[in-house]
Specification:
By secondary structure, the chain is an alpha+beta fold. Helices cover about 35% and strands about 20% of the residues.
Amino acid sequence: DAVDKVAEDIKGAGKEIMVVGHLPLLQKLASFLLVGSEGSDLVCFKNSGVVCLEYNQSWKITWYVTADLVY
């Protein structure tokens, strides 16, 4: 699915939210928010990974945790 609608909903929320989902949607969404293109593969998600994006005039990655860091 195209991620532009989800990105609009996130930007319109006006508060902190958590988006939970599956690949490839989350990877496409993160790329779209960060660089405006869902095909850039900027963030490489692994199973059970968590990435925190923060918006302050533009999106940036503030932290990223993979399952192998926890176990």
